[in-house]
TrEMBL record:
Membrane-traversing stretches: none
Name of protein: NADH-quinone oxidoreductase subunit F
Primary enzyme class: translocase
Function: NDH-1 shuttles electrons from NADH, via FMN and iron-sulfur (Fe-S) centers, to quinones in the respiratory chain.
Gene expressing this chain: nuoF
EC number(s) given by UniProt: 7.1.1.-
Catalytic activity: a quinone + NADH + 5 H(+)(in) = a quinol + NAD(+) + 4 H(+)(out)
Species of the source: Candidatus Aeolococcus gillhamiae
Record keyword Amino-acid biosynthesis present: no
Cofactor requirements of the protein: FMN; [4Fe-4S] cluster
An annotated GO BP: cellular respiration
PANTHER family named in the record: NADH DEHYDROGENASE [UBIQUINONE] FLAVOPROTEIN 1, MITOCHONDRIAL (PTHR11780:SF10), NADH-UBIQUINONE OXIDOREDUCTASE FLAVOPROTEIN 1 NDUFV1 (PTHR11780)
Domain NADH-ubiquinone oxidoreductase 51kDa subunit iron-sulphur binding: 327-372
Amino acid sequence: MAEHKLLTKDFGTEGVQTLAVYERLGGYQGLREAFRKFTPETLVEEVKASGLRGRGGAGFPTGMKWGFLPKDVFPRYLCCNADESEPGCFKDRELIDENPHQLIEGLLIAAYALQVNVAFIYIRGEYQDQRLLLERCVEEARAAGHIGNDIHGSGFTCDVIVHGGAGAYICGEETALIDSLEGYRGQPRLKPPFPAIKGLYGKPTVVNNVETLSNLPHIVQRGGAWFKAIGTEKSAGTRLFCCSGHINRPGTYEMAMGTPIRELLAEECGGVWKDRSLKAFQPGGGSMQVLLPEHLDLPLDMDAVMQAGSSLGAGAMVFMDETTCMVNVSMRLVDFYHHESCGKCAPCREGTYFESDLMHRLEAGECSLEELNTLADICDNMNGKCFCPLGDTATWFVMSAYKAFSDEFKAHCGAGRCPVRTVRAELVTA
């Protein structure tokens, strides 16, 4: 694995928060090589050949996404989505903290490929320290000639603007992000038209994730074929996984795609804590369907995990031990989506309210079996019927948990308390 560490190399105590250190370690050579070795069109083809897929959740092929921009329509825009708000996800924050110029260089490479003259980094409102760091690094890069007019004599001009959000989860959805950038309330837009056709200020726009862009300097310097050779046929390269929950070593780990999930848990995360057994885990963040111990031998491959009934999503692995109450976890996640619903469409606005109310009564043991049976109807009225994916994802975990742990859900009905937490308390005090 060591030779495949692209984004999380050990730089010791030096750190790469400053331009001087980043350049001493080879920083911005990828940008120079992009100008020297590629035209914008051939650079797009190189990224297509690399097999790089988006690291923000959907996993769409990056080069193909770039190829959707209509030819000869200008100006066009590039937005870096740093609005990292998925429960359990913190990799983008760490990439910015540890290597901000890597992101800026990747953003400029993408801007050159797309012939974008103004690129934005839209960063989560709660990431104030990271926003200030990026603003300082952008000014460093501008002063050094990496940003501005005729960059390195290439004839290419690009400015970079860092824009802070206001803490709305919905702005991680690309069209809501664009609305927020334009100064409007962050709400999703109807698609089509897609942002590639009509995005920021009504012009063609590409939105890419922090981790996606951070891969580009390495692809340019070593080649698309080199990147493609890492991982699997359909999931190339490495990927960062934010691991948390009931494990001995929580943290962010960079793994070659195709590595078994069991290896990530055992060797990187140190296994399940307190010598307990694994009950369930989420492979891609709070919105993803639950998987079971029997799925640990699945490879870290987007398609393989999808075939198992879940998704790698934003790369947030949340592990739960045998004492976990799946009703309680479901309730907390439903509460999150109820709070973060923008309210634009009725299925999500009303559905998350009814879903949250039902789950609270179920967790308290005050829900009847007949009422529990309405959960599937509530979720069915949301999934696939909302304006954007938020309403869909608000149903995915709870319904998958209900399916896998139906006896546990039913045991709460009329119990007057949470039976799982009662048993756990008895074990702890015994």
